[in-house]
User: What shape does this take?
Amino acid sequence: MGLKAWARALKRDTHAVWLAAKDPRTPWHAKALALAVAAYALSPIDLIPDFIPVLGLLDDLILVPAGLWLAIRLIPAEVMAEHRTAAEAAAQRPVSRWAAGAVIVLWIVSAALLALAAARALR
Assistant: This one.
């Protein structure tokens, strides 16, 4: 398996584990681990910051895959297979760049208006 395929499978499995954590057929201990692993994998905050040479990438290269592996082992196989299919289908949906741009513009305008209101209030 190439690096690109491995990264795609990791992304799919992260989404599938997140979906499985919300499934009532998943045991509570698997849900807890699945939620923790998926939240950590999707979080912009790392245990070891990425700017630290070599060590910064350890969590992305070792901790996340190891956590996913353990979570997948604890989730029933049929539940995991179902959610892998759902995660794969979600990854193949088209992405609207216009909608993303509109949301970014909305956030910028909101931040500018908030800054303007704060500046007026401080005068």
